[in-house]
Amino acid sequence: MSRRRNRRKKLPEQPVELSITGLSHEGEGIAQLDGKVHFVSGGLPGESVVAHYTEVKNSYAKCVVSEVLSSSPERVVPPCEYAEICGGCSLQHWGTEYQIQHKQQVLAEQFEHFGGIAPERWLSPLTAMSEGYRRKARLGVRYVDNKGGALVGFREKRSNFICVIDKCKVLHPVFGERIEALKQLVNDLSCSNKIAQFEVAMGDDIAAIIVRHLVPLTESDIQRIKEFAQETGIHMYSQAKGPDTIFRLWPEAANKADERLEYSLPEQGVRYQFHPTDFTQVNTNINRQMMEQAMSLLDPQSNERILDLFCGLGNFTLPIAKKAKTVVGVEGSDAMVKRGYENAKLNGIDNVTFYAADLTGDYSDQDWVHQGFDKILIDPPRSGAIDVIEHFPKLGASRVVYVSCNPATLARDSGSLIAQGYRLVAAGVMDMFPHTAHVESMALFEK
Questions:
Q1: Listed residue (242, 286, 140, 272) closest to 200, CA to CA
Q2: Maximum distance among all alpha carbons in the chain?
Q3: Domain range holding 247?
Q4: Does 332 share its domain with 424?
Q5: Are residues 181 and 326 in the same domain?
Q6: 444 and 399 in contact (C-beta within 8 Å)?
Q7: Cα angle at 298 between 297 and 302, to 5 degrees?
Protein backbone atom coordinates (compact mmCIF):
# COMPACT_ATOMS: atom_id res chain seq x y z
CA MET A 1 0.00 0.00 0.00
CA SER A 2 1.46 3.32 -1.01
CA ARG A 3 1.74 6.17 1.42
CA ARG A 4 1.28 9.79 0.50
CA ARG A 5 4.19 11.79 1.79
CA ASN A 6 3.57 15.23 3.15
CA ARG A 7 6.34 17.07 1.36
CA ARG A 8 6.77 20.67 2.31
CA LYS A 9 7.76 23.02 -0.48
CA LYS A 10 11.26 24.36 -0.08
CA LEU A 11 11.19 28.09 0.58
CA PRO A 12 13.05 30.38 -1.82
CA GLU A 13 16.21 31.61 -0.12
CA GLN A 14 16.38 34.94 -1.91
CA PRO A 15 14.15 37.83 -0.75
CA VAL A 16 11.71 39.26 -3.24
CA GLU A 17 10.65 42.82 -4.08
CA LEU A 18 6.88 43.33 -4.02
CA SER A 19 4.39 46.14 -4.64
CA ILE A 20 1.52 46.05 -2.15
CA THR A 21 -1.85 46.76 -3.79
CA GLY A 22 -4.39 45.75 -1.13
CA LEU A 23 -5.09 44.28 2.29
CA SER A 24 -6.47 40.96 3.46
CA HIS A 25 -9.11 40.96 6.17
CA GLU A 26 -6.39 39.77 8.56
CA GLY A 27 -4.36 42.92 7.84
CA GLU A 28 -1.73 41.38 5.57
CA GLY A 29 -0.60 43.27 2.51
CA ILE A 30 -1.59 41.72 -0.83
CA ALA A 31 0.76 41.63 -3.82
CA GLN A 32 0.90 39.74 -7.12
CA LEU A 33 4.04 38.14 -8.51
CA ASP A 34 4.28 35.67 -11.39
CA GLY A 35 0.53 35.12 -11.30
CA LYS A 36 0.50 34.16 -7.63
CA VAL A 37 -1.10 36.04 -4.74
CA HIS A 38 1.39 36.98 -2.03
CA PHE A 39 0.17 37.77 1.50
CA VAL A 40 2.74 40.06 3.03
CA SER A 41 2.89 40.49 6.80
CA GLY A 42 3.95 44.03 7.64
CA GLY A 43 3.08 45.51 4.24
CA LEU A 44 0.63 48.35 3.52
CA PRO A 45 -1.09 49.34 0.25
CA GLY A 46 1.03 51.60 -1.94
CA GLU A 47 4.30 50.36 -0.50
CA SER A 48 7.23 48.73 -2.24
CA VAL A 49 8.91 46.24 0.07
CA VAL A 50 11.54 43.58 0.24
CA ALA A 51 10.17 40.43 1.84
CA HIS A 52 11.27 36.90 2.62
CA TYR A 53 9.10 33.82 2.19
CA THR A 54 7.56 31.97 5.13
CA GLU A 55 5.19 29.68 3.20
CA VAL A 56 4.70 28.71 -0.44
CA LYS A 57 1.63 26.93 -1.83
CA ASN A 58 0.47 26.26 -5.38
CA SER A 59 -1.98 29.18 -5.39
CA TYR A 60 -0.45 31.61 -2.92
CA ALA A 61 2.60 32.49 -0.87
CA LYS A 62 3.17 34.16 2.48
CA CYS A 63 5.97 36.61 3.18
CA VAL A 64 7.26 38.92 5.88
CA VAL A 65 8.58 42.41 5.18
CA SER A 66 12.30 42.77 5.84
CA GLU A 67 12.73 46.24 4.29
CA VAL A 68 10.34 49.02 3.28
CA LEU A 69 11.56 50.69 0.08
CA SER A 70 8.73 53.23 -0.19
CA SER A 71 6.46 53.83 2.77
CA SER A 72 2.70 54.38 3.03
CA PRO A 73 1.56 57.57 4.81
CA GLU A 74 -0.49 55.25 7.05
CA ARG A 75 2.64 53.59 8.43
CA VAL A 76 3.68 54.65 11.94
CA VAL A 77 6.49 53.73 14.29
CA PRO A 78 5.06 50.94 16.48
CA PRO A 79 4.56 52.11 20.08
CA CYS A 80 5.92 48.78 21.32
CA GLU A 81 9.55 47.80 20.86
CA TYR A 82 8.54 44.13 20.48
CA ALA A 83 5.93 44.70 17.75
CA GLU A 84 7.95 43.05 14.98
CA ILE A 85 8.34 39.74 16.82
CA CYS A 86 5.55 39.46 19.41
CA GLY A 87 2.35 37.77 18.23
CA GLY A 88 0.15 39.60 20.72
CA CYS A 89 -0.41 42.44 18.23
CA SER A 90 -0.32 42.47 14.43
CA LEU A 91 -1.17 46.05 13.41
CA GLN A 92 1.07 48.28 15.52
CA HIS A 93 2.70 49.63 12.35
CA TRP A 94 -0.69 51.12 11.38
CA GLY A 95 -2.08 54.39 12.65
CA THR A 96 -5.06 53.86 14.95
CA GLU A 97 -7.50 55.69 12.63
CA TYR A 98 -6.38 53.50 9.74
CA GLN A 99 -7.00 50.40 11.86
CA ILE A 100 -10.60 51.53 12.43
CA GLN A 101 -11.13 52.31 8.74
CA HIS A 102 -9.89 48.84 7.83
CA LYS A 103 -12.21 47.14 10.32
CA GLN A 104 -15.17 49.09 8.96
CA GLN A 105 -14.18 48.06 5.44
CA VAL A 106 -13.94 44.40 6.48
CA LEU A 107 -17.47 44.51 7.90
CA ALA A 108 -18.85 46.22 4.79
CA GLU A 109 -17.14 43.70 2.49
CA GLN A 110 -18.48 40.75 4.47
CA PHE A 111 -22.04 42.09 4.22
CA GLU A 112 -21.58 42.51 0.47
CA HIS A 113 -19.92 39.11 0.02
CA PHE A 114 -22.47 37.01 1.91
CA GLY A 115 -25.69 38.66 0.84
CA GLY A 116 -25.11 41.73 -1.27
CA ILE A 117 -26.49 43.79 1.61
CA ALA A 118 -25.57 46.98 3.42
CA PRO A 119 -27.01 48.70 6.49
CA GLU A 120 -29.37 51.63 5.98
CA ARG A 121 -26.97 53.64 8.13
CA TRP A 122 -23.52 53.12 9.58
CA LEU A 123 -22.94 53.57 13.30
CA SER A 124 -19.98 55.64 14.43
CA PRO A 125 -17.12 53.33 15.49
CA LEU A 126 -16.65 52.79 19.21
CA THR A 127 -13.05 53.55 20.18
CA ALA A 128 -11.01 54.07 23.33
CA MET A 129 -7.38 54.07 24.43
CA SER A 130 -5.16 51.72 22.43
CA GLU A 131 -2.68 50.93 25.22
CA GLY A 132 -3.18 49.37 28.64
CA TYR A 133 -6.69 48.28 27.69
CA ARG A 134 -6.45 44.51 28.03
CA ARG A 135 -7.77 43.25 31.37
CA LYS A 136 -7.87 39.52 30.60
CA ALA A 137 -5.24 37.37 28.93
CA ARG A 138 -3.43 34.06 29.06
CA LEU A 139 0.33 34.46 29.14
CA GLY A 140 2.57 31.60 28.16
CA VAL A 141 5.40 30.59 30.49
CA ARG A 142 8.55 28.68 29.53
CA TYR A 143 11.80 28.13 31.38
CA VAL A 144 14.71 28.32 28.91
CA ASP A 145 18.23 28.01 30.32
CA ASN A 146 20.01 29.56 27.35
CA LYS A 147 17.76 32.63 27.54
CA GLY A 148 18.47 33.30 31.18
CA GLY A 149 15.55 31.49 32.78
CA ALA A 150 11.81 32.06 32.60
CA LEU A 151 10.01 33.71 29.69
CA VAL A 152 6.53 35.16 30.20
CA GLY A 153 4.33 36.62 27.48
CA PHE A 154 2.60 35.96 24.19
CA ARG A 155 3.97 33.70 21.48
CA GLU A 156 6.25 35.00 18.77
CA LYS A 157 4.72 35.68 15.37
CA ARG A 158 4.55 32.49 13.27
CA SER A 159 6.06 30.46 16.12
CA ASN A 160 5.21 28.48 19.24
CA PHE A 161 8.09 30.07 21.16
CA ILE A 162 7.33 32.55 23.93
CA CYS A 163 8.48 36.04 22.95
CA VAL A 164 11.31 37.54 25.00
CA ILE A 165 9.82 40.72 26.48
CA ASP A 166 10.10 42.67 29.73
CA LYS A 167 6.82 44.60 29.46
CA CYS A 168 3.59 44.70 27.45
CA LYS A 169 1.89 47.91 26.36
CA VAL A 170 -1.58 46.48 25.64
CA LEU A 171 -2.01 44.67 28.96
CA HIS A 172 -3.38 46.65 31.88
CA PRO A 173 -0.28 48.20 33.52
CA VAL A 174 -0.80 46.11 36.67
CA PHE A 175 0.27 43.15 34.51
CA GLY A 176 2.06 44.78 31.58
CA GLU A 177 4.61 46.54 33.79
CA ARG A 178 5.29 43.38 35.82
CA ILE A 179 6.48 40.93 33.17
CA GLU A 180 10.01 41.02 34.63
CA ALA A 181 8.63 40.45 38.14
CA LEU A 182 6.61 37.47 36.89
CA LYS A 183 9.73 36.02 35.27
CA GLN A 184 11.59 36.36 38.56
CA LEU A 185 8.72 34.71 40.40
CA VAL A 186 8.94 31.68 38.11
CA ASN A 187 12.73 31.56 38.47
CA ASP A 188 12.35 31.48 42.26
CA LEU A 189 10.08 28.42 42.27
CA SER A 190 11.33 24.86 42.66
CA CYS A 191 9.20 23.85 39.66
CA SER A 192 10.31 26.65 37.32
CA ASN A 193 10.18 24.36 34.29
CA LYS A 194 6.69 23.10 35.19
CA ILE A 195 4.81 26.40 35.23
CA ALA A 196 2.61 26.32 32.12
CA GLN A 197 0.68 29.57 32.11
CA PHE A 198 -0.45 32.69 33.91
CA GLU A 199 -4.06 33.70 33.41
CA VAL A 200 -4.53 37.34 34.34
CA ALA A 201 -7.82 39.11 35.07
CA MET A 202 -8.60 42.62 36.27
CA GLY A 203 -11.76 43.90 37.92
CA ASP A 204 -12.50 47.54 38.62
CA ASP A 205 -10.12 47.57 41.58
CA ILE A 206 -8.58 44.13 42.08
CA ALA A 207 -6.13 42.22 39.88
CA ALA A 208 -5.78 38.44 39.89
CA ILE A 209 -3.34 35.91 38.47
CA ILE A 210 -3.91 32.16 38.21
CA VAL A 211 -0.68 30.14 38.26
CA ARG A 212 -1.15 26.94 36.24
CA HIS A 213 1.42 24.35 37.30
CA LEU A 214 2.07 20.79 36.10
CA VAL A 215 3.47 19.41 39.38
CA PRO A 216 2.46 20.13 42.98
CA LEU A 217 3.81 23.33 44.54
CA THR A 218 6.04 22.95 47.57
CA GLU A 219 5.43 24.88 50.76
CA SER A 220 8.32 27.18 49.86
CA ASP A 221 6.77 27.75 46.40
CA ILE A 222 3.45 28.69 47.98
CA GLN A 223 5.21 31.02 50.39
CA ARG A 224 7.09 32.73 47.53
CA ILE A 225 3.84 33.24 45.58
CA LYS A 226 2.21 34.71 48.68
CA GLU A 227 5.15 37.09 49.10
CA PHE A 228 4.72 38.22 45.48
CA ALA A 229 1.01 38.77 46.15
CA GLN A 230 1.67 40.80 49.28
CA GLU A 231 4.32 42.91 47.52
CA THR A 232 2.07 43.71 44.54
CA GLY A 233 -1.45 43.51 45.99
CA ILE A 234 -2.39 41.06 43.22
CA HIS A 235 -4.66 38.19 44.26
CA MET A 236 -2.83 34.95 43.45
CA TYR A 237 -4.50 31.64 42.61
CA SER A 238 -3.17 28.13 42.07
CA GLN A 239 -4.43 25.61 39.50
CA ALA A 240 -2.97 22.10 39.39
CA LYS A 241 -5.40 20.40 37.00
CA GLY A 242 -9.00 21.17 35.99
CA PRO A 243 -11.11 24.20 36.94
CA ASP A 244 -12.20 22.57 40.20
CA THR A 245 -8.59 22.65 41.44
CA ILE A 246 -8.38 26.46 41.38
CA PHE A 247 -8.06 28.08 44.78
CA ARG A 248 -6.82 31.41 46.02
CA LEU A 249 -3.47 31.40 47.79
CA TRP A 250 -3.57 35.05 48.85
CA PRO A 251 -5.53 36.56 50.38
CA GLU A 252 -6.99 33.39 51.85
CA ALA A 253 -10.68 32.96 51.00
CA ALA A 254 -13.29 31.69 53.44
CA ASN A 255 -15.30 30.27 50.52
CA LYS A 256 -15.53 30.32 46.73
CA ALA A 257 -17.74 33.42 46.75
CA ASP A 258 -14.89 35.35 48.39
CA GLU A 259 -12.68 34.61 45.36
CA ARG A 260 -14.68 36.87 43.06
CA LEU A 261 -13.59 40.05 41.33
CA GLU A 262 -16.02 42.83 40.42
CA TYR A 263 -16.67 45.18 37.51
CA SER A 264 -19.37 47.78 37.06
CA LEU A 265 -21.37 49.59 34.40
CA PRO A 266 -21.92 52.94 36.14
CA GLU A 267 -24.13 54.36 33.40
CA GLN A 268 -26.44 51.37 33.78
CA GLY A 269 -26.28 51.27 37.57
CA VAL A 270 -25.21 47.62 37.74
CA ARG A 271 -22.21 45.71 39.02
CA TYR A 272 -21.05 42.16 38.48
CA GLN A 273 -19.04 39.66 40.46
CA PHE A 274 -17.00 37.15 38.47
CA HIS A 275 -14.35 34.50 38.94
CA PRO A 276 -11.01 35.21 37.20
CA THR A 277 -11.68 32.38 34.71
CA ASP A 278 -15.20 33.57 33.80
CA PHE A 279 -15.70 35.10 30.38
CA THR A 280 -15.85 38.88 30.61
CA GLN A 281 -15.05 41.55 28.04
CA VAL A 282 -11.33 42.37 28.00
CA ASN A 283 -11.76 46.09 27.34
CA THR A 284 -13.69 47.94 30.05
CA ASN A 285 -14.03 51.25 28.19
CA ILE A 286 -15.37 49.60 25.05
CA ASN A 287 -17.68 47.35 27.09
CA ARG A 288 -19.27 50.42 28.66
CA GLN A 289 -19.69 52.15 25.29
CA MET A 290 -20.99 48.91 23.78
CA MET A 291 -23.61 48.69 26.51
CA GLU A 292 -24.74 52.28 25.90
CA GLN A 293 -25.08 51.62 22.18
CA ALA A 294 -26.87 48.29 22.63
CA MET A 295 -29.36 49.83 25.04
CA SER A 296 -29.99 52.70 22.64
CA LEU A 297 -30.59 50.36 19.69
CA LEU A 298 -32.68 47.85 21.64
CA ASP A 299 -34.63 50.59 23.43
CA PRO A 300 -36.25 48.29 26.04
CA GLN A 301 -39.64 49.44 27.32
CA SER A 302 -41.37 48.73 30.62
CA ASN A 303 -44.10 46.63 28.96
CA GLU A 304 -41.77 44.42 26.88
CA ARG A 305 -40.50 40.86 27.15
CA ILE A 306 -36.92 40.60 25.91
CA LEU A 307 -34.71 37.59 25.15
CA ASP A 308 -30.92 37.69 25.66
CA LEU A 309 -29.18 34.79 23.89
CA PHE A 310 -25.62 33.70 24.75
CA CYS A 311 -26.02 35.91 27.82
CA GLY A 312 -22.96 34.84 29.83
CA LEU A 313 -23.06 36.16 33.38
CA GLY A 314 -25.63 38.80 32.44
CA ASN A 315 -23.51 41.58 30.94
CA PHE A 316 -26.43 42.74 28.77
CA THR A 317 -29.22 40.94 30.62
CA LEU A 318 -29.19 42.99 33.80
CA PRO A 319 -29.19 46.49 32.24
CA ILE A 320 -32.04 45.38 29.97
CA ALA A 321 -33.94 43.98 32.98
CA LYS A 322 -33.79 47.37 34.70
CA LYS A 323 -35.91 48.83 31.88
CA ALA A 324 -38.00 45.93 30.54
CA LYS A 325 -40.95 44.07 32.04
CA THR A 326 -39.34 40.63 31.82
CA VAL A 327 -36.02 39.33 30.50
CA VAL A 328 -34.97 35.77 29.71
CA GLY A 329 -31.24 35.01 29.47
CA VAL A 330 -30.02 31.81 27.80
CA GLU A 331 -26.44 30.57 28.13
CA GLY A 332 -24.69 27.27 27.43
CA SER A 333 -22.83 27.10 30.74
CA ASP A 334 -24.53 26.05 33.97
CA ALA A 335 -21.85 27.95 35.88
CA MET A 336 -22.64 31.17 34.01
CA VAL A 337 -26.37 30.72 34.63
CA LYS A 338 -25.61 30.42 38.34
CA ARG A 339 -23.44 33.54 38.11
CA GLY A 340 -26.24 35.36 36.31
CA TYR A 341 -28.68 34.68 39.14
CA GLU A 342 -26.07 35.72 41.71
CA ASN A 343 -25.50 39.02 39.92
CA ALA A 344 -29.22 39.64 39.55
CA LYS A 345 -29.58 39.20 43.32
CA LEU A 346 -26.55 41.44 43.90
CA ASN A 347 -28.31 44.22 41.98
CA GLY A 348 -31.78 43.63 43.42
CA ILE A 349 -33.15 42.55 40.03
CA ASP A 350 -35.98 39.98 40.16
CA ASN A 351 -37.58 40.15 36.70
CA VAL A 352 -35.03 37.94 34.93
CA THR A 353 -34.98 34.18 34.36
CA PHE A 354 -31.85 32.35 33.20
CA TYR A 355 -31.74 29.04 31.33
CA ALA A 356 -28.81 26.76 30.50
CA ALA A 357 -29.09 25.48 26.93
CA ASP A 358 -26.83 24.46 24.06
CA LEU A 359 -28.04 26.88 21.42
CA THR A 360 -26.50 24.77 18.66
CA GLY A 361 -28.43 21.67 19.77
CA ASP A 362 -31.97 20.66 20.72
CA TYR A 363 -33.46 22.97 23.32
CA SER A 364 -37.11 22.53 22.29
CA ASP A 365 -38.09 21.22 25.73
CA GLN A 366 -37.30 24.52 27.47
CA ASP A 367 -40.11 26.87 28.46
CA TRP A 368 -38.64 30.00 26.87
CA VAL A 369 -38.77 28.46 23.38
CA HIS A 370 -42.57 28.56 23.50
CA GLN A 371 -42.84 32.09 24.83
CA GLY A 372 -43.19 35.21 22.74
CA PHE A 373 -40.72 38.11 22.88
CA ASP A 374 -40.89 41.69 21.74
CA LYS A 375 -37.16 42.05 21.15
CA ILE A 376 -34.01 39.91 21.10
CA LEU A 377 -30.37 40.65 21.87
CA ILE A 378 -27.89 38.05 20.69
CA ASP A 379 -24.14 37.89 21.40
CA PRO A 380 -22.88 34.58 19.96
CA PRO A 381 -19.35 33.12 19.75
CA ARG A 382 -17.26 33.36 16.57
CA SER A 383 -19.19 30.49 14.97
CA GLY A 384 -22.29 32.69 14.91
CA ALA A 385 -25.89 31.76 15.61
CA ILE A 386 -27.41 30.36 12.43
CA ASP A 387 -29.04 27.42 14.27
CA VAL A 388 -30.96 29.51 16.79
CA ILE A 389 -31.76 32.30 14.31
CA GLU A 390 -33.71 29.80 12.22
CA HIS A 391 -36.16 29.60 15.14
CA PHE A 392 -36.70 33.38 15.40
CA PRO A 393 -40.00 33.36 13.44
CA LYS A 394 -41.57 31.37 16.32
CA LEU A 395 -40.44 33.97 18.87
CA GLY A 396 -42.16 36.93 17.22
CA ALA A 397 -39.60 39.66 17.96
CA SER A 398 -39.86 42.87 15.92
CA ARG A 399 -36.32 44.02 16.74
CA VAL A 400 -32.98 42.18 17.00
CA VAL A 401 -29.68 43.60 18.20
CA TYR A 402 -26.79 41.35 17.13
CA VAL A 403 -23.41 41.76 18.87
CA SER A 404 -20.70 39.97 16.91
CA CYS A 405 -17.06 38.97 17.32
CA ASN A 406 -16.81 37.67 13.74
CA PRO A 407 -18.01 39.80 10.80
CA ALA A 408 -18.17 36.77 8.49
CA THR A 409 -20.74 34.93 10.61
CA LEU A 410 -22.63 38.15 11.32
CA ALA A 411 -22.96 38.70 7.57
CA ARG A 412 -24.00 35.08 6.99
CA ASP A 413 -26.60 35.22 9.77
CA SER A 414 -27.86 38.56 8.45
CA GLY A 415 -28.95 36.76 5.30
CA SER A 416 -31.17 34.47 7.36
CA LEU A 417 -32.67 37.40 9.26
CA ILE A 418 -33.39 39.30 6.04
CA ALA A 419 -35.04 36.19 4.58
CA GLN A 420 -37.33 36.26 7.63
CA GLY A 421 -38.43 39.78 6.81
CA TYR A 422 -36.02 41.83 8.93
CA ARG A 423 -34.22 44.92 7.59
CA LEU A 424 -30.59 45.66 8.36
CA VAL A 425 -31.17 49.11 9.82
CA ALA A 426 -27.74 49.93 11.26
CA ALA A 427 -24.30 48.43 11.83
CA GLY A 428 -20.87 49.49 13.03
CA VAL A 429 -17.60 48.30 14.51
CA MET A 430 -16.25 48.39 18.05
CA ASP A 431 -12.48 48.46 18.58
CA MET A 432 -12.39 45.95 21.42
CA PHE A 433 -8.86 44.79 20.48
CA PRO A 434 -6.74 47.72 19.20
CA HIS A 435 -3.57 46.83 17.25
CA THR A 436 -5.09 43.51 16.12
CA ALA A 437 -7.19 42.53 13.11
CA HIS A 438 -9.99 41.28 15.38
CA VAL A 439 -13.30 42.92 14.43
CA GLU A 440 -16.17 43.31 16.91
CA SER A 441 -19.39 44.78 15.58
CA MET A 442 -23.05 45.45 16.34
CA ALA A 443 -26.07 45.42 14.05
CA LEU A 444 -29.73 46.37 14.39
CA PHE A 445 -32.49 44.49 12.55
CA GLU A 446 -36.16 45.49 12.48
CA LYS A 447 -39.39 44.24 10.97
A1: 140
A2: 71
A3: 136-251
A4: yes
A5: no
A6: yes
A7: 135
Residue 9 domain-assigned (yes or no): no
Cross-strand pairs, 94 = 75
Count of structural domains within the chain = 3
Could you give the strand order of the β-sheet that contains 235-239, starting from the edge strand earlier in sequence?
149-153, 136-144, 195-202, 207-213, 235-239, 247-250
Give the pLDDT confidence of 232-255 residue by residue, as tens digits: 999 999 999 999 999 999 998 877
| Residues constituting the chain | 447
Spans of the chain below 70 pLDDT: 1-9, 256-257
The pLDDT of residue 115 is 83
Asked if residues 344 and 353 have their Cβ atoms less than 8 Å apart, the reply is no
pTM for the whole structure: 0.95
**Rounded Cα distance, 153 and 70, in Å:** 33
How high is the pLDDT of residue 2? Answer: 45
Note the pLDDT of residue 8: 61
Of 205, 222, 251, the last residue of a domain is 251
The 8-class DSSP code of residue 161 comes to S
Burial of 445 (0-12, 13-18, 19+ CB in 10 A): buried
Q: Residue 445: what residue type? A: F
Provide DSSP, 53-73. EEEE-SSEEEEEEEEEEE--T
The answer to whether 380 and 312 are in contact (CB under 8 A) is no
User: At 274, is the secondary structure helix, strand, or coil?
Assistant: strand
Residues 207 and 282 in one domain: no
192 Cβ neighbours under 8 A, 6+ residues apart: 143, 149, 150, 186
- Helix, strand, coil in percent for the chain, rounding step 5: 25, 30, 45
Enumerate the active-site residues. Answer: 405
